[in-house]
Each structure stands twice: as structure tokens, then as C-alpha cells.
Design brief:
Two copies of one chain form a homodimer.
Chain A lengths: L5 H6 L5 E3 L5 H9 L14 E3 L4 H5 L5 E3 L3 H13 L7 E5 L4 E3 L12 E3 L9 E7 L4 H5 L4 E7 L16 E6 L2 H24 L9 H21 L4 H4 L2 H12 L2 H10 L4 H10 L5 H14 L10 H11 L4 H10 L3
Chain lengths: 336, 336
């Protein structure tokens, strides 16, 4: 997504610099030689590329940051950013990282254990924060398929900057429900694993898809998500909009989280499937959302109105050795 | 679906009779010889088959009717049913027909022109009415994929009968929002055409899906549907549940309405694509929902809170010669 967002930014005449972390050396070199390996298309020629040891050069004079690292890489990258001498205070940070942050390390706020959302975890951060929700598959944005994203603004002064992202094919919808958009972005990955499990559980030639089951679980997931967003202090309507339903749909159609679910549904052990995918560069963020989600929920004042049955079932499957078919059949029977 | 529902009914030990209309002679003969041609599997051996001239025999002693004819065949079939001498008053009718009924013919209620929903169109009907919503693909139900449906009961006395349908793989969810379930069942077909148009508009080898656009329109469709349900006197929450989001998801994954949209998106003229599909036995009900939907909306006291932009765009595309790409780009930009 870091590569894909350069298309609308460059189209708007901005001077765009793409910095790769220490895990992206290979990717940055490939972009120097030809098409972006994950987008399948070359980046706009105006984009300048920076290796991981060139963070200071990339940051010099920056007026806006767009951060698209995985949740595992987020804290180390943020620490490097904050340690950069040239970082101007109040720099806008548009953050695409999804998920929960476990309370650990020096930049996170109070408490032992537990989990927080990114946007609300760094109260003293000298940056103006926005969190970006879906529904976006990066390769489609790079292909200029009509696309929309929800940009949740932690600070109203960021709203005029949205004009830098907007193009005729990329609509940027402003939201002030930071908690809601962050929860949707994190949890839709978890629910996409659940929908992937459906695909894996009913395999075999001629068996075809199991859309009935997936449709039922999709509607249950939106319901549960809306309740969790509300319990977290966000707006239930965010879960029923593009950042909720829309992003869950895109994520469940294809991608790493759905694939992880399919492998687990087909019988692979969850920890092993996750580790194997991760070691081949396919980090399924939903796995972490399921691990940290219960800690986040435990820290809320209110229980979600729609319950948390789906997340709890996922937790049992991924971390408790529970059997997929029994869990899914219970969920399919438990609606309403 | 008429064939698929015989699986749970027979599993519950009911004596099941499957009657085919005058359009189903071929289908009934095929079922006598082997697998149901559309389900790909043989019906349960307990099911008795009846040709179109055997309605009276099929009805004799019936305690429950399940009607699964297309919206075009609905009124003629209902007229034949009502003319049957042996029809006991108050017989339960579980109706799967989706869509709007144009006000015409002798059994429909007041008024010239306009359109009504089935369940509310026959106030003097000597039957106890229930309307069935999704999300169900019939072939998956016949394969015993875990499936749920929403049964909207026009009469609370029908609720105990739901036990005849329920099996471990088929969950039947009771609802009393007859209007909401009927509107979802009708309009999800229309919105599935819109999502199909996305597939047709961006074709070509290597182009891949356009899930970003479809996800955005899916979330807009749920929003619009919820507003229309509410304006029609139903509950917005029905649109956000399995009969709404869930059924729209299933319908947009595959099937006739999505295919009609894809053909139109790829450049075929709407009336021609519809007629060609219909003549090969593929009736895309959403086409009729788009035609009659505006008349239904015009008869409501209130305008839908979320507007009707998607339906209006569909109407312009299907019946007004409007260009797909311009309409879709306008819809993609118009959110929120």
C-alpha cells in the first residue's frame, strides 16, 4: 500500500519519496529496476526511492508522512522516526498499520499487559495522527480501479490535506471516528480468517464454494464488529460503512488472512501455518488481532452489545487447539 | 430452491410432494430419471413428484405449502392455487418468490399502476403467509453446507412450523419484519446486478477483479437498502443482518443477476441481455426489481433516509440508455 499510494500523490503533483525499512531492501531494489513486485506495475517515475539507511534524507523537509508498515514493524519504525533529528513537530502522520499494540516498550502508554489501538496509544506523540481504513486492495489502486478509503482524522486540521490524496479514481472519505476505523481495520483481518476457514473446511473437487455459510458469518461479523466499535467508544455506523462491511468484503475475497484461514480449515496447525506464511513474507495480521483482541476487549468499560462469540471462537481455534468444524457449526447455529 | 428445501423437510420425516408448474415439465421428468438438473444431486427418495396437471393430487391433505416460483409466474400460480377446490382455509404458505408485484389482475389490491410487495399485496388471502429471505444458494443447501435463512412470519401462529425446516445444517431464523425481509429479498437482486456491472466494466486478461469498487458499492447498497426498508415500514436492522448483507453477498458472488450485470457492463444492451438470458431459462429477477422498485418507492409516505441513488442509477442504465462507466464513477464518488 505504501507503493500504491504514490500513484494518487504523484498524480497530484507532490514530490513523493518512498522509504523502505530494513525488511524492504529487496523490494526497493526491485522498484529501481522495474515493476513493483507486489503491485505488478512500475511506480510513477516521479517517485524517489530511499533505502533503510536513508531515513534522514527521505524525511528532510517532509510535510506529510504516510506509514504503511506491518503491525509487527510499527513500534521499531515509529521509534526510529521519533529519534530522527529533523522531525518537525506536528508533522501529519497518515497511518495504515492495522491492529493492536501490546503494552510494552518505552513509547507505549501506561500499564502492563493489555492491548491498545495505535491511534490512541501514543498520547504524547509530536505528530498529527490519521488512521486509514479500507476498502482497498493496493494492486487495484495502482491499476486505477475506482477506489475509496476512509481516512479517520485524529485532528481536524488534517482535513485540507486530504486533497493531496484525492483523484478521480481515488475517493478519500473523511471520518472523525478514529477508534471505529482502527477497530474495523484491525478486526476485519480476524473475521477474514474465519471466512477463509469456511473455504478450507469444505474442500474437494466439485464441492465448490460455501457461500451460504460465509454469508451468514459475514453478517454475524458485521453485527459483532458494530457492537465492539460502540463498546470501544466509536460509532456503530462505521462498521456498517465502507471501512467495516466494505473492507471486510475485500479482505475476505482474497489475500493473506483469508489464505491463512483456508490453510487452517484444511487441517494445517494454526501456529505452523502462520509461521510458514510469515517466513515467506506473507504476514497475516488477523492472527495478531485475534491474539491481542481479547486483551483490548477486557480493558473496555462495557461489553459489546452484540457479544464476541466469533472472536472468541477464533481465539480457541488459533490458540486453544479447538476443532474448526465444531466451532463453525456452533457459530452458524447461534445467530439471533 | 423448491427442490433444495425437500432435503431438510424429508430429513425431518415429513411426507414431501414436489409439484412443477407448466414451465417445469422437463425438470420434473429429469428428477424422475436422475439428479435434479440444477442442484446436481438426486432429490431425497421420499419426495413424490407431480406434473403441472396434478396440482389437486399434490394439494390433497397438504398441511403446509412452500412456493418457489419466479416473480413472473407467481400470480398465475397463486390464482390456480386459490381456484383449487380442496384448499383448506388458513393453510400456511411459505413463499420464496422475491420482488414487486405490479398492480394488475384481479387478485391484487386497490389502485392502478404502482407496485406492491407480495406479502402485503393480498390482504384477503385465505392463507397464513411467511416470506423467506436468504442467504441461500440452493445447490449448497442440497449439499448440506451449513446454511441459514430468515423466515419472516406474517402470522405468529406459524412459528412452531419452523421446526419442520430446521436441521443441524439448516438454521431457520424467525423474523416478524415481513416488509423488511421482502424488500431485502427483492432489492438484493438489483444491487447484485450493479456489482456484476463492475466485473463487466473492467475486463481483460490480467485485469483481475475490481473488489475495491465492489466493496464500496456493497457498503453503499446496504446503507441504501436499510433506508428503503425503514421508509417501507420495516426495520433497518434487517438490512444489516443475514437477509440483507448476507443475501446480497451470496447473490453478488455468483448467479443470474450478477451475470446479467457483467454482460451489461461488458457492453451488451440491457434489454437484449435480459431477454437472451430469460429465453435460456435464466431469469434475472433483479431486472424486474429495478423496473418496479421506483413505483414502490413512489407509493411510500417517506423518502428513504439514505437516498436511492444506486437504484436510480440502475434504472437509468437498464431502462434509460445511460452509460455504465459514468454512472458507476458517479456512485463511487458520491459516498458520505
Amino acid at each position: 500500500m505504501g507503493g500504491a499510494i504514490t500513484f494518487p500523490l504523484a498524480a497530484n503533483g507532490l514530490s513523493v519519496r518512498l522509504w523502505g525499512t530494513w525488511l524492504d531492501e529487496e523490494l526497493i531494489s526491485e522498484c529501481r529496476r522495474g515493476p513493483h513486485p507486489r503491485l505488478g506495475t512500475a511506480l510513477p517515475p516521479e517517485v524517489e526511492l530511499f533505502g533503510s539507511d536513508q531515513l534522514e534524507e527521505a524525511l528532510a523537509g517532509a510535510e506529510l508522512l504516510f506509514l504503511a508498515v506491518s503491525s509487527e514493524g510499527f513500534v521499531p519504525v515509529l521509534e526510529r522516526l521519533l529519534a530522527s533529528p529533523g522531525l518537525p513537530p506536528g508533522l501529519p502522520l497518515f497511518c495504515l498499520t492495522k491492529g493492536f499494540v501490546a503494552r510494552e516498550g518505552r513509547i507505549l502508554r501506561t500499564g502492563e499487559g493489555g492491548a491498545e489501538l495505535y491511534g490512541s496509544s501514543f498520547p504524547g506523540l509530536p505528530l498529527r495522527w490519521a488512521s486509514i481504513g479500507g476498502p482497498v486492495k493496493a494492486a487495484e489502486l495502482a491499476r486505477r480501479v475506482p477506489t475509496a478509503s476512509v481516512y479517520a482524522l485524529g485532528d481536524p486540521s488534517l482535513e485540507p490535506l486530504l486533497a493531496f490524496f484525492r483523484t478521480p479514481y481515488y475517493r478519500v472519505l473523511a471520518s472523525y471516528d478514529l477508534v471505529g476505523v482502527e477497530l474495523c481495520a484491525a478486526l476485519k483481518n480476524a473475521y477474514a480468517i474465519l471466512l477463509g476457514i469456511c473455504d478450507g473446511l469444505f474442500p474437494g473437487p466439485g464441492a465448490g464454494p460455501v457461500d451460504n455459510l460465509k454469508a451468514l458469518l459475514l453478517s454475524r461479523a458485521v453485527d459483532e464488529l458494530a457492537g465492539i466499535v460502540e463498546a470501544g467508544g466509536g460509532r456503530a455506523s462505521t462498521a456498517c460503512g465502507p471501512a467495516g462491511i466494505g473492507d471486510l468484503y475485500v479482505t475476505a475475497q482474497s489475500g493473506r488472512n483469508r489464505l491463512l484461514g483456508e490453510r487452517i480449515g484444511a487441517g494445517e496447525r494454526p501456529a505452523q501455518a502462520y509461521a510458514l506464511m510469515r517466513s515467506s513474507g506473507q504476514l497475516a495480521e488477523g492472527y495478531l488481532a485475534v491474539r491481542h483482541g481479547p486483551s483490548f476487549l477486557a480493558g473496555l468499560d462495557a461489553a459489546p452489545a452484540g457479544g464476541r462469540e466469533l472472536l472468541d471462537a477464533l481465539y480457541r481455534i488459533l490458540f486453544g487447539g479447538a476443532e474448526c468444524r465444531a466451532e463453525l457449526e456452533r457459530l452458524a447455529g447461534g445467530y439471533g
